[in-house]
Specification:
metal-binding (chains A, B, C, D, E, F), Ureohydrolase (chains A, B, C, D, E, F), metal ion binding (chains A, B, C, D, E, F), Arginase, Chain A, Agmatinase (chains A, B, C, D, E, F), homohexamer, Agmatinase-rel (chains A, B, C, D, E, F)
């Protein structure tokens, strides 16, 4: 298996631990997210390790790419359990987590794993869809219910901060308005406020690629028209510098539905910017 | 056949009548518009019925999707006649029309049908191309001549209001400047003025998907670089609230040339926003 | 072979000479640039010759499309030599050059050919990548080293003006800061200053299509996320009016990796705008 | 939803009941089998109802297409249970079953459902792969273990007759030689013998499309080179005339991996030939 | 426009005249046949002019490729008239015709044109489909009715010899059995007999590419499973040596639905073999 | 990098050495052969290591996959030299070579390397094309000239045995008839004779995937209609048992032009069958 660009090789010394969660468990429109971790790794070798806009280099970040969690197809519960155990273990050892999905449901395992150590966790959620249904297609565990389940995990459901949401049923939007910190079609302004409030509390970030416009990220299972731009997203990533991010996931990239792998390339660049922004400093100091 | 999301089932009580006009009659570059009505219907089930930005729900709009007008291939004139008859009949019964093409030539049938009832009709035309040629590839009836024919139908050709046009031959642009209300590369500002002037006169809207940039709407027969953005278009749709729109068509989406059906998804979302904007109120009142 | 839209037929009287350099010599990610000249020509017949935004028509520009330089595959050096000879010959006869690549390495041949006549040449370089490596994949001649080689050709390496660069290794960015006129992530403002400084000195423009965002130009070998928009580029082309552009190349369009040929269509439109902007006046005068 | 060509509408009077089992549960290489039932139905309208080679017409077969079993994604066990219940119910009412998958694991539910009524069932299995593993990717329930589980259901495992198998691990081939009626690379000759032996015992037929060569059936998840031809398969279907086939499934067609839908078209034609061969007589008599 | 490989340039001296009839007039499943003439010409340059199996070379055949008949889209009748006129004119000058479609309806124009000179014409028809309907999708002029119309043109409808037909409605097959010389699923044997009977009467050959199996010719509008092989077809072409073939058409190749242009390549090779077989001798003598 | 299925890890003890030569040096129609080695390796993990038809297992073959020779793009001569050196070195150590291309020109390097040790080498060449031109597109080194260059290397050019050739210019076919052991359109019969004559002399086998019909191997640069079938090829591979094969190459698979990777899967299966046939025995003895 190809490792992510400039991955270190040692687990013990790594501050950040990257792994793939190649699930395609709960597809409703189009699948293919299971291929994302490997294709993103492959395309990472077609970008530079250096970020001109950040002035930092991935070479200076302490991280290791451990490969993929093995998926036994057809049993979502055992898969969630497996990913949660892995994350719990890493978090217990003081590692910061960078998980590459996979469909969005894996974020539930990510949050559960991290929360085992950080009970006062905040979650920042960037997505086109609110993902707040209670049931979807007959199940409580789905990409469309994942943030409802996440909200239930948190000490207070208002610690789920949702940004740039532009799609949802009437019921879930109303539920969100009452129960989570939901921001419809808004990104930068509310995010800055939230960041101020969070301070140095532990944070988990869940980034669904479909928060972006389908023109810049066509390779995803349920594209939703009229999304945010890439530069908006990169601004957001920069705002996070200084936050105590203990977990980060990037989900729902679907290489088979992409054109010329531009969505996977973007995924690789997002990972690079995240690691340099959040991981670079600690190394320098 | 799959109906459009949340289509009612009764014709008699419906304020809006939706149908498909699956023509591919006059292709010059790439065809495939005949597949648009069914693919847009299919993708409509992958968006929500609720619009967070409008705060309204398609469930509250009185409309019915009647399926497609049957196309006897290879005879444009009989096809235009058939669509015109259908529209004339619907308009005669006081219905508002929402037609999904098909290539742009079907707009001529749509306008002719509506004008049978509303002789003082205005037409709002959003397109990359002026479509004002007199002849094209040997024919007076083509996607490239359709707005010339439409102008000839109207009581005054200046009631043809064209927005965001960014392509045309020198001759047709000059003809347009003299004969229609032509706005090159401009959208929002002139549209607001026109809307004020029109007041509550009956309006037909013809929306060629290629008015959008090819990045957001790649699935079309003759994409033209440097188009408008999706949020510009959605703003425009909102401006129309209050206009007396008696007919609306969405044309030139070509699913076989698309990537991951994002253009058809966008088409479905446009239809939703149009129906909620124009149809929601009348129901509430 | 199909000629570019409205190509004249006479070499002697043409002010601008267009030709294709269908090389795919030094691919690292994905190839296909060899097909660009012919696909761009083909798609040129699906846009108009008239530019509404410039108010000019390609019919009024004195140019001829001579077809492609014959490529003997597998020998980059002899190919560079051949293209350089062709350009030297054209420049010697007072022609202005418009070369359609091909991979970016052909720009080296273009610059060498033009510099044979214009020793005080400035180069304007628009690209996602700095292309300033000394070696790449074991070679000094590659799409990733081409601007280093170009810098070495110029009387002063600071006459290489690089705009909108958003990717590069730390080493090449630092080398660029010392040796070229490198502008990271910036376009319009520094360009205007440079244009003022250049005055009527001879200029060669090298435009790598990947300077644009992958959403608007997906058909390229090494797309780089977060690029400039089409309207930004078209603004830039207009700024050049009045510059003494003696050579222009458009490189790295890769039709096999495109969607619905939108990148090649864009290439055709760029060529039209360039020729009308730079070539229209001289004809009128 | 589009019904299969010439589907009747009444359940009570139908001899054959067709339904789709759109599962994609246990993908190891490429998915997409979930889309097969609907695409096969759609393509069925592009073939004729009449079979020149059989001299019969689908119009004369008593069958009804009931649509798809609803799939709650991500829980294979509950899905198997649901399909099994459906089949048990149909079989209990004396219906013959025609199930369109979905991945091959659904055949286990089909056999279990049918065997509830016919304890002396024989199974005819046509496939590239033996599918006789005990475990695969950590699970006992997978497209690669399905026939091992089927063999365990049958009164005698030698009643599992496997034809044209051309791929398997050494272990599963050896297990098959001891425990099932396994025929490597052979089709017509052993099949005729088996048909003679079976007489009028109840039979379930499981047809994995990858028994065919990838050239004629490229749209499948795990194509295996050097398969049988279409005319070989159609001969086999004719041999079955007179057999007491109480269940039939067609699995592993994957439309997203197909070219021009030729595999789905072939699937539609197989269904037509099966229904005319097995269902036509009972109607005539 | 690229000419077919080794096309001569003089009309007057050419024994065979080739032209394209790029119609897509009467699509029911998938279009794209309009692109076939140009793609076949392009791919002809990727095969050799020499045929090892025939021992002849296209260089020794007297033929000229005249390009395409101009298509005014959307009016089938005027298009048929135009093609018929062209063929009538060529036939009147003693030319032999090789027409590349386009959809199958153009064969009607080809036969009508040729019959103007040769009233005792026989037609050899190779196809998956009988194409003998009287009406199809509301029209008497369609790819599905074309041979019914052709039969009506001939002095005796039994002079329409149909081979390898494997699809049709019950009605059209029965009509064919009574009225044409229809051979279901049979090719070589009946063809040899027919050739003996025809002697040196004038013959028109209409070859629909879908007579071949979809595996070897996937790029067609209505592929029909279980077709003949390429070597069967090439045998057939050789049998025709000595026949007085005055017209030949190759129709229904659809490049947009192909894989790697293999169907167009095959089309180019068929044209080569036909011209060397039928045209080579006359040159030698 | 993923290794080929069941690759050993030790060079010293391996009888066979596998490596990739990812060249795309001399493309005339379509490229992409550079991606073949890695895609074939990847797909090898989707077939079994056991061959039911041979009764052997890849696990029992002594081979190692060493990865790819590094390609410095754009310089064919240095690449040929590098591959030749590698092969010379391996052959000198008594290894048998299995090279995966890459375009066909790499076979020249393979033969040159092997011949350094085995001066009395015979070459068995399976291909659609004779590849016997002296020059092609201005070069003596190309996929179309490679066997002319190979013939010049051999002690006697009649030791170049060419099978199933179905395409070539008149000149190269005539040159082949005089100078090589050329068999047009024939495979099995002449091969058996040649095998008898060769006895235990050292043999190099060069297998161009386009010897197969495009239906079974569409993923190749220059497909040629009417090729041999997969079972014909697998018979041929079995005949070779007992031959003293010291080198084997498989070339011209082009993944970007394939459908569902079936050509690469076939390539993986060919490699498995070759290694079990030629490598299995020697291990057992």
């Amino acid at each position: 298996m190809t490792r992510f660009l400039e991955s270190g090789s040692g687990f013990a010394s790594a501050e950040w631990v990257m792994f793939g969660a190649p699930s395609d468990a709960t597809v409703s429109r189009r699948g293919g997210a299971q291929y994302a971790p490997d294709v993103i790794r492959c395309e990472s070798h077609h970008i530079e390790s250096y970020s001109p806009s950040l002035g930092g280099d991935l070479k200076d970040v302490s991280f290791v790419d451990l490969g993929n969690v093995f998926l036994s197809p057809g049993d979502v519960q055992s898969y969630l359990t497996k990913v949660e155990k892995v994350v719990t273990s890493f978090a217990g050892k003081g590692k910061r987590i960078l998980m590459i999905g996979g469909d969005h449901l894996v974020s539930l395992a990510g949050v559960r794993g991290v929360i085992s150590k950080y009970s006062d966790l905040h979650v920042l959620h960037f997505d086109a869809h609110a993902d707040l249904r209670d049931f979807y297609l007959g199940s409580r565990y789905s990409h469309a219910t994942v943030m409802r389940r996440v909200a239930e995990c948190l000490a207070k459901s208002k610690r789920l901060h949702q940004f740039a949401i532009r799609s949802g049923s009437k019921e879930e939007i109303e539920w969100g308005k009452r129960n989570t910190d939901l921001h419809l079609m808004q990104l930068s302004e509310p995010l800055r406020k939230v960041i101020d409030e969070i301070g140095d509390s532990p944070v988990y970030v869940s980034l669904d690629i479909d928060v972006l416009d389908p023109s810049v990220a066509p390779g995803t299972g349920t594209p939703e028209p009229n999304g945010i731009g890439v530069s908006d997203l990169f601004d957001v990533l920069r705002y996070m510098k200084g936050l105590n991010v203990v977990g980060f996931d990037l989900v729902e990239i679907s290489p088979p539905n992409d054109v010329n792998n531009i969505t996977s390339l973007l995924g690789a660049k997002i990972v690079r910017e995240v690691l340099i922004t959040l991981g670079g400093d600690s190394v320098d100091q």
